[in-house]
């Protein structure tokens, strides 16, 4: 089995696993936007969740229907479509379904991008409102000096949202014209998936951070401590995005070099 086959298979399993995790997270775990679940109303689940992140960080979208409709709930449909779209056998056996689902997929991407604009306009960023005992841009990272660099963590979030929108545009444009470039479409679709699923990996890194503190400083050391929860949340987003992007580029590196970055 070649390195390319191994890379793509591991990538596919990773994408599918993270997509399932996010669907469960959106509809059943926090229940922030879900009409069928209110998991945070359960005392045990709430205590476990608040040990990692403040309750408001999980529940704040309940009062923002437009954000739920434009961003959060479409993300679950985006995750449901993604594994089918990148499965090579499914793509070949059901080309018409692939094309239709692809149009829906990129429409959902546009909706999610607009939802992020709403989040920004309403100033629902975690570093702005979810840690009231800390200043807006205080303790955004355990080691990255954003303030010294003249940055706010919102710049990181803007960059991620812009890359998410850009990769979707490139992936769609590669096959929207008469001169279709399927290799470029495949590469940019994977980059788009990596841009979105970095958010799912963030959840993994949050848990890993707290586990490392447990092992290094004692059980519960970082649990419920805002001064650690906030930088852990921010750093985990950076790590999740970076790991997803780097692994994606490894997979894409096996495509024909001339078609990796072209859109037509």
Short account of what is shown:
With 264 residues, the chain is mainly α. It has helices at 3-27, 43-52, 55-59, 65-86, 88-93, 95-121, 126-129, 153-176, 182-217, 226-252. The protein has one domain.
Task: Write a concise keyword list for the protein shown above.
264 residues; mainly alpha; 10 helices; globular; disordered C terminus
Describe this structure in words.
This protein is mainly α and 264 residues long. The protein has one domain (3-259). It is 70% helix and 0% strand. It contains ten helices and no strands. The protein has helices at 3-27, 43-52, 55-59, 65-86, 88-93, 95-121, 126-129, 153-176, 182-217, 226-252. Helix 1 crosses helix 9 (182-217) and helix 9 packs antiparallel against helix 10. The longest helix is centred in the C-terminal third of the chain and has 36 residues, at 182-217.
Number of strands: 0
Number of domains: 1
Low-confidence stretches: 258-264
Instruction: Work out the radius of gyration.
Output: 19 Å
Global mean pLDDT: 93
The SSE order reads HHHHHHHHHH
Tally of separate helices: 10
- What percentage of the residues does DSSP assign to strands (E)? under 5%
